[in-house]
Amino acid sequence: MEIALHLGANCTDEDRLVRTILKNGAILGEHGIAAPGPGKYRRILRETIQNLNGQPPAPDTRQIILDAIVPDESPDRLVLSNSNFICIPNRIFENGILYAQAEFKLQGMLQLFPQDDLDLFLAIRDPAAFLPDAFARSNMDTFDAFMQGKDPHEVRWSDLVSRILQVAPHITLTVWCNEDTPMIWDELVIALTGLPQGTKINGPHDLLATIMSSEGMNRYINYLNAHPPKTISQKRRVIAAFLDKYAIAEEIEEVVDLPGMTAEDITELSDLYEEDVARIAQMEGVRFIGL
């Protein structure tokens, strides 16, 4: 069986991706794909991995978990999503390391499903926006306590990607930028579910509708109906054009406030992020979905 695990990062799509996937249950079922509700698997996976604490599970553990997640089903592909899979926000920089628990959690998944093919999906985000958002959601009193000694200028998603690939070099790892998500929404749904390319899905504009005015969405959909794009790049250009005119400003403009950091520091964080994204896109073992 294939297991697709969307493991974050924290503070990215706010479970919108899994909600769109759940809208497509009937379509998925026709293709042997199961996407259970998050309540079916998040707690049982977290508690099982924590309780095992690195020890091998009993031989029947995999089947017990599957019976709880997808009773009376034997799907070819199982789709799971949890932006807190690795950790909750206040532990993101535990011991001064970005997602220090990543190896432990992934090794736990590999132990639970040793004969299955694991596909991992990771959204990354500009640290200039990610850090203040994650800090706000943590229960840390100060930003320094949240970072636990990690210099914001040294935050590199590519380091996390490298560690993931070291733990499981045989897996498929798909990465994208959270900033690009509105432009690649249906591509992400298809990639995560494993549906055939070109499949018409429910909710292809779910995220776009949250950042574009109602008038803009109506005009956009009418335009698509009258002028169906022939390629993915053509569709992205259409989306960009409509966003340029109809985007809801407060939904796309982020006010970045990091304690002790100047405007120049924020710009530098974003520049370093762009370099890091380019590095990830070229990494062997990574399928990068970008613009």
Category by helix and strand content: alpha/beta
**Overall pLDDT:** 93
Strand order, largest beta sheet: 2-3-1-4-5-6
What ranges have pLDDT less than 50 throughout 5 or more consecutive residues? Answer: none
List the SSEs and their pairings.
Layout: E1 2-6, H1 16-22, H2 25-30, E2 33-34, H3 42-52, H4 61-69, E3 77-81, H5 102-112, E4 117-124, H6 127-137, H7 143-147, H8 157-167, E5 172-177, H9 185-193, H10 208-211, H11 214-226, H12 232-246, H13 249-252, H14 263-281, E6 286-289
Helix pairs in contact: 3-5, 5-8, 11-12
Feature tags:
about 290 residues, alpha/beta, Rossmann fold, six-stranded parallel sheet, 14 helices, 6 strands, about 10% strand
Notes on the structure:
- By secondary structure, this protein is an alpha/beta fold.
- It has a single domain (2-201, 263-289), classed as Rossmann fold, CATH 3.40.50.
- 46% of the residues lie in helices and 10% in strands.
- The protein contains 14 helices and six strands.
- A six-stranded parallel β-sheet has the order 2-3-1-4-5-6, sandwiched between helices.
- Helix 11 (214-226) runs antiparallel to helix 12 (232-246).
- The longest helix has 19 residues, at 263-281.
- It is globular and about 55 Å long.
